């Protein structure tokens, strides 16, 4: 799984990038996407970033990709989207 977090000050570039990421996963928070990945998906995303976004960055912009292993644990609180297949009911 990938977590992609971004902080892009230009509205047009930020919107374009979020639309690009939505092809691969879903938004967890305003500037964070969860993407179920393969090496091909990761290469595609990194190539797109390097070819189309990095050159327009200012000192205020960043994209961070967290490549998480299958053994990483995700805990969600509140209304965070949770697509886990296991369901636990505590009563």
Helix content: 25-40%
Low-confidence stretches: 85-89
Identify the CATH class: Alpha Beta
CATH architecture term: 2-Layer Sandwich
CATH topology: Alpha-Beta Plaits
Determine Rg (CA atoms, Å): 15 Å
Please give the order of strands in the largest beta sheet: 2-3-1-4
Secondary-structure class: alpha+beta
Number of domains: 1
Shape: globular
Distance between the termini: 31 Å
Main pleated-sheet profile: 4 strands, antiparallel
Beta-strand percentage range: 15-25%
Topology:
Layout: E1 2-7, H1 11-21, E2 25-29, E3 32-35, H2 39-52, E4 62-67
Antiparallel strand pairs: 1-3, 1-4, 2-3
Write up what this structure looks like.
A four-stranded antiparallel sheet has the order 2-3-1-4, with helices on one face. It is α+β, with helices and mostly antiparallel strands and 91 residues long. Helix content is 27%, strand content 23%. Mean pLDDT is 86; it is low at 85-89. The protein has a single domain (2-67), classed as Alpha-Beta Plaits, CATH 3.30.70. It has two helices and four strands.
Give a summary of the structure in a few sentences:
With 91 residues, the protein is α+β, with helices and mostly antiparallel strands.
Keywords:
disordered C terminus, alpha+beta, 91 residues, Alpha-Beta Plaits, 4-stranded antiparallel β-sheet, 2 helices
């Amino acid at each position: 799984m990938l977590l992609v977090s971004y902080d892009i000050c230009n509205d047009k570039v930020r919107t374009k990038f979020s639309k690009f990421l939505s092809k691969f996963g879903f938004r967890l928070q305003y500037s964070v996407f969860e993407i179920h990945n393969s090496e091909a998906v990761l290469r595609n995303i990194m190539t797109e970033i390097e070819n189309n976004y990095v050159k327009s960055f200012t000192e205020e912009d960043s994209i961070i990709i967290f490549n998480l292993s299958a053994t990483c644990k995700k805990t969600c609180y509140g209304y965070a989207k949770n697509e886990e297949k296991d369901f636990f009911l505590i009563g």
